[in-house]
Amino acid sequence: xxxxxxxxxxxxxxxxxxxxxxxxxxxxAAIAFAxxxxxxxxxxxxxxxxxxxxxxxxxxLARQSGKMSPGGHLYDLIADGTxxxxxxxxxxxxxxxxxxxxxxxxxxxxxxxxxxxxxxLVMRLDSAGVRSSADLGGRWGFDPDDGMxxxxxxxxxxxxxxxxxxxxxxxxxxxxVFVFLWLxx
Length: 185
Known about the structure:
With 185 residues, the protein is mainly alpha-helical. The chain is built from 7 helices and no strands. The protein has a single domain (2-184), classed as Up-down Bundle (Four Helix Bundle (Hemerythrin (Met), subunit A)), CATH 1.20.120.1760. The protein has helices at 2-5, 15-34, 38-65, 70-97, 103-128, 150-156, 160-184. α2 packs parallel to α4 (70-97). It is flat.
């Protein structure tokens, strides 16, 4: 990602521009998933991959250009939470449109809310100085948000239903962990 972003470091392009593109492409992916048509599922998967790379690119550009700011970080977290929640809701709507059980809409909304709540709790932990979202990063350069790269793969293979179940469980577990961290502060 560093090499791809480096040409932008000394241009008028800001990290917030990339964050805005991430938000727009995340919502576009959600809309494509909500269509419930196989070709749109593939389009949604492709657009989501672009959105997820933009999610990594905005932070990298901020570091390389020295344009890091608390407001930009907050905007990034809000855009991530909104995009990720919209994607799961779109998947639930799309699966029900495609003739799957209508309860998948509810599951998609639940997964989306769980993911958004986890993001909100990360913001609270950041603002309280308990733990920054950077501290939540994994090993070898992977970030917890990188788990979202499973979504386009799962949708490509038609695994939308199990994906929603796992997202609802994983999102709920993340909320529990972050509430525990918040209470331990």
